[in-house]
Amino acid sequence: MRLITILLICLPLLSYAGGENDPPGARSAAMANAGLTFTDIWSIYHNQAGLGYIQGPTASIFYENKFLISNFAYAGFAGAIPLGNGAIGVSYTNFGYSAYNEGRVGLAYGMKLSEKFAVGVQLNYHTLRIDADGYGSKGAITADVGFRLQVSDNVSLAAHISNPTRTSLNDFDDERIPTVIRFGAGYQISEDLLATGEVEKDIDMNPIFRAGMEYQPADILFLRIGVSSNPGLLAFGFGLNFDAFKLDLSTTYHSALGYSPQIALTYAPGKK
Questions:
Q1: Each residue of 80-125: pLDDT tens digit?
Q2: Cα angle 230, 46, 37; round to 5
Q3: Which of 192, 185, 199, 112 is nearest to 155 (CA)?
Q4: Which of 44, 175, 211, 253 lies at a CB distance of 3.0 to 4.6 Å from 197, suitable for a disulfide?
Q5: Please, how many CA atoms are within 13 Å of residue 223, restricted to the half-sphere of its CB?
Q6: Domains of the chain by range and CATH?
């Protein structure tokens, strides 16, 4: 019960670790989660429109230890395969431990409507279980919708909304799964330097501003850094690309709660 109490106190700072405000992927995490315009497998969590750019079967797994607390484990996987003018993907995330657990399963599809414009949608099934008297477990279904626009060779724009229907998780105190709106931009400053930024608004919370940069000093190496507000976070990490495998490592730093390291491994057979 003591750990549950700590968890409930920290939960607002965790930004709903089940995936709404804190989508996984060590690449984006190293850039303070300013990854709305990305077009990789982790788009299944950030902006499903990015799946429209996936050209072959791809699978990824991740693990994050929030604030280096053993029971604050956040893990999951994602997979996608091309279908039609886009790609279909599935995802799963799990946060917590035996006494407190959040999970989410998602089915997504992203497609390019033109060479510059893509859209994406996703259905999610959420579960919440609290192993304590008077709590139990709950489940709910939500949806995500997003788009991505390639304005020019160097500039991209994106928008995304999670749970536009404001689905309720519990009738008590009108508890709802967060409804989150995000707007972002990406600017390819040079061939080896990318800058991203975005604003996120949970309709019940203050806005969050994020910015990140990614620098590629060598063919296989990517260096990343990012910052965000509300709460203030510093993020950094790196990625290594080994032909079909990609390894990404990151950590975020909260001044009061400490570090949250994350590792992600991606496999895309036939891709370099």
A1: 999 999 999 999 999 988 888 999 999 999 999 999 999 999 999 9
A2: 95
A3: 185
A4: 211
A5: 6
A6: 2-267 (2.40.160.40)
